[in-house]
Amino acid sequence: MTEVVIVDDPTAGAELVAGAVAALVASRPAPVLGLATGGSPRPVYDRLAGLCSTGELSLARCQAFLLDEYVGLSRSHPASYRQVIEREVVVRTDLPAERVLGPDVWVAESDLPAACRRYEERICEAGGVDLQLLGVGTDGHIGFNEPGSSLGSRTRLKTLTARTRADNARFFDGDAGAVPLHVVTQGIGTILEARHLVLLAWGEAKADVIGRLVEGPVTASVPASAVQLHPHVTVVVDSPAASKLQRAEYYRETWAAKPDWQGI
Ligand code: GLP
Fold it and tell me: 67 CB under 6 A from ligand 1?
């Protein structure tokens, strides 16, 4: 079953997920993290930064892969996902900047398909992603796999929906027209190859999509519902984001009864 953990608030969720990262780092010589952007993973990045600053955690042996990237922004644009991860993770932890890779979208347009293939190869060469952080769009997208995306898709060029551009306008001074139309994203098939998926959602605005992705049918119309196919997936939500889950009580009971040593 898709494990659902309903936490008191994003800070408690972040502590839980950072604990899973710490356990991973302790158990593998070269851990591979999958990093997501958007507001949802931020509390986790804050917590990781805190643990690194006190010396309780080191990400120095880690490698990281980004889920997706806008096409058409300069490398130094503050909204480019490379820059977001640089600001939110790299400068605040000891994760080595040169070991953070994202899709190379700064090539000639005709070279994008080859760059997408190369990105998949880099992930494979690293041994695959151990722990993949995910947010979810209000339309059900993961990475930038919009509704209708093939559940077997690989890293490729995609066109954003008007809804996603409107949702992400907040990172472009409120101007949806400034949000790029095109992106490169890991495919759903790529994401499902990570060994542990951790999907985060906070607040009532995500309640509907969380209900559909956890308890609805697996369908390309809700790309995030593909996580139901994964053998190790943890959905971490606060109570408002969990408010449309039919089995919320059961998830709470299951979590309360789970032995501590199992972690997430
Ligand atoms: C963007 C990202 C997704 C992210 C989504 C939700 O579209 N490409 O990876 O999950 O936004 O963002 P937020 O967490 O801010 O709600």
Answer: yes
